[in-house]
Amino acid sequence: MIHTPMDKIAEATPEPMARKVRGLSDRAIAWIFVAPSIFLLLAVNIFPLIWTIRLSFTNYRVNRPNRDIDFVGLRNYERILTDSDTWMTMQATAHFLIWTIVLQVLIGFALAYLLNMKFKGNDMWTTIIVFPMMLSPAVVGNFWTFLYQPQIGLFNYVVTFFTGGDPSSFSMIGDVQLAPWAIVIVDTWMWTPFVMLICLAGLRSIPDSIYEAAECDRASKWRQFWTITIPMALPFLMLAVLFRGIENFKMFDLVVQLTGGGPGNTTTLTSIDLKREAFEKWRTGYSSAYAVILFVTVFGLASIYVKALNKVKER
Amino acid sequence: MSFSVTEPSIRTKWFAGTAVVLYAVITILPLMWIIATGFKSPADSIAYPPKVVFEPTLEGYVNLFTQRTRLNQDDLDALPPPETWYDEMVREQGQVITGRSRYGERFMNSIFIGFGSTFLCMVLGTAAAYAFSRFRVPLKNDLLFFILSTRMMPPIAVAIPIFLMFRQLGLNDTHLGMILLYTAVNLSLSVWLLKGFIDEIPVEYEEAALIDGYTRFQAFYKVVLPQAATGIASTAIFCLIFAWNEYAFAVLLTSGTAQTAPPFIPTIIGVGGKDWPAVAAGATIFLVPVMVFTILLRKHLLRGITFGAVRK
After folding, report:
1. Are A149 and A21 contained in the same domain?
2. Which of A105, A120, A231, B156 is the most buried (most CB within 10 A)?
3. Contact between chains at B291 and A243 (C-beta distance less than 8 A)
4. What is the CATH number of the domain that holds A91?
5. Least reliable range by pLDDT among A22-36, B162-176, B239-253, B293-307
6. Do B30 and A278 touch (CB under 8 A)?
7. A61 belongs to a structural domain
């Protein structure tokens, strides 16, 4: 809050007088400035959210506008939570989430650690490494299907160049076993720089004097790494995990272009499943309930996590 | 340079540099491959082993912007001689140009919707950020959290009611609808980022202006706006990149008139089979501007991607 002499004078000046002297009052300006944004967000986010919650208790279908809309209570929720396909989808999502986060944290942190050695030209290389994450996931994901082609694809060629074997012997996006890894690889390629940038900020925030003190105490480099570097960079790492977790829980564009959810349902993440229910099968009521379940999951997990993050920060 | 115990040795630095450069080369390879494929002939693009050295051609770009049909040799010979170099190029493939492709149109849509939503977002976002930064807004923290939380929802989940709402209002597949939608999605980012930038401008400047007889509005646009110019510019680029790259809403809510490039590029097919050089050409034209922006933004990158949570 700002408490300046100007504010005190402004407060002491009678309202009509202030208006004459200063034009609009600060409070009026605050409202004029904030209201349009809040209004737009209410219209595009909150109003639809309330609508979704209402629809989730009905059997409404967009493609059958003339049918009576029945109130079905919690039946949609019951169906989703007892459907074995939903749990398959959740499993695929969990596999994707866990592995992308593990790989991105490991590689991202390692890269940040190396970049923090401040060798010559590290700024330029940072910028180059960052490119993939700034690009359109749909467009890049689509091109990766070309790189993943057996026989002619660059990915298969490079892999078999080092391992031997026949490049047409495996298909990353056509094989039930490999497809879940195909999406993990592309997501890791794309988003490792994100984790790297946050970790780099974390490493740079550690003052040199702490290391100097440790050096005087003859702590080994290994010991310094585990007792200084990791604990001090931990809040940053956790923040990176939070961002990647939320983003990958929402994941749609990259994976839908890469595999379309296939083969079978092996890469059908929740967003892809939801899209099918809502915009291909047109089960609007059912998919609204699905959407509500996803909201609650994201908000629930994120707020628990933020509490943990704040605890780490306080230490 | 003075000796420091924390300064890594030359050998460590050399090792770190090599490892990072190696990673950078591997990570940039797919992007280089997109750009290279755009200049390959269709035959070169699917050659085995993959061709690193090839004769560059603009066939991919010509195919990207044109619609063509295949003719047999007799019909081709019966045609009048080709008028332009691209006519000739297409004839050599045994095809003739029948019209313009939709790529140009989709690209213009991306520009129009991207810049439109960015502009609107900056106007609304700067005002809101200024108010949140300088005034006592009731429920300030709740409102700020609400603004941030709108970004946590999966786009597909939000798309269901927005689809219904836009249909009621006649906004489905319109430029205005997409601009409003992208503005709303980007507002959270721009308010949070801009609040951070405005927080950093000392209040004393405005107070001096107010004492000199400026009104709040004048102090806002004559003192704060010029000071926040860099911040506003980098926030704008972030909003533009987001709107530019967005796919989920675009593919669900647009089909004909207002479709942007990301849902369109993957659907590019040639005459008889997927035309990868044309896809790569379309992707290159679409991706390279973002790479240029990334270089311009590099100082504010971290702030932009973390909603201002991490400042360097």
Report:
1. no
2. B156
3. no
4. 1.10.3720.10
5. A22-36
6. no
7. no
DSSP state of B266: G
Please give the class, per CATH, of domain B104-267.
mainly alpha
| Res B100: pLDDT | 87
What do you get for the CA distance between the two ends of chain B, in Å?
24
What residues have CB less than 8 Å from A290, skipping those under 6 apart?
Answer: A76, A80, A273, A274, A277, A278, B157
Residue B5 to residue A45, Cβ atoms within 8 A: no
**Do B117 and B245 contact (CB within 8 A), yes or no?**
no
At B1, is the pLDDT very low, low, confident or very high (cuts 50, 70, 90)? very low
Please give the Cα distance from B110 to B104 (Å, whole number): 10
pTM: 0.89
How many structural domains comprise chain A?
A: 2
Cβ under 8 Å to A: B residues 49-108: 49-50
- What own/partner pairs with CB < 8 Å and gap ≥ 24 does A305-311 have? A305/A238, A305/A242, A305/A245, A306/A242, A308/A238, A309/A235, A309/A238, A309/A239, A309/A242
Same domain, A95 and A21: no
Between residues 105 and 124 of chain B, which touch chain A (CB distance below 8 Å)? 124
A250 and A145 belong to one structural domain: yes
Task: Using an 8 Å CB-CB cutoff, list chain A residues near B128.
Answer: 33-34, 36-38
The residues of chain B that CATH labels 1.10.3720.10 are 104-267
**How far is A147 from chain B, CA to nearest CA, in Å?**
8
Is residue A218 located within the same domain as residue A266? yes
Question: A115 Cβ partners below 8 Å, 6+ apart?
Answer: A122, A125, A126, A196, A200, B16, B20
- Whether residue A60 is contained in a domain is answered as no
Whether ipTM tops 0.85, in short, is yes
Please check whether residues A236 and A272 belong to one and the same domain.
Answer: yes
Q: CA distances (Å), B187 to each of A42, A74, B65, B118, B157, in order?
A: 12, 34, 34, 9, 19
Q: Per the CB < 8 Å rule, is B244 touching A136?
A: yes
Confidence of residue A1 (pLDDT cuts 50, 70, 90): very low
Chosen from B156, B220, B238 to mutate, greatest number of chain A CBs within 10 A: B156
Residue of A6, A9, A34, A133 to mutate, interface with B, max B Cβ within 10 Å: A34
Q: Given CB atoms, is B296 within the 8 Å cutoff of chain A?
A: no
Look up the domain containing A48 and give its range.
Answer: 5-55
Identify whether the C-beta of residue B132 lies closer than 8 Å to the C-beta of residue B190. Answer: no
Cβ–Cβ pairs < 8 A, chains A and B: 298
Could you tell me which of A249, A238, A240 has the C-alpha nearest to residue A296? A249
Q: Which residue of B has its CA nearest to A257?
A: B266
**Do residues A48 and A148 both lie within one domain?**
no
How far apart are alpha carbons B150 and A43 in whole angstroms?
Answer: 12
Q: What distance in Å separates residue B30's CA from the closest CA in chain A?
A: 8
Minimal Cα distance from B298: which residue of A? A127
Across the interface, whether the CB atoms of B16 and A117 are under 8 A apart is answered yes
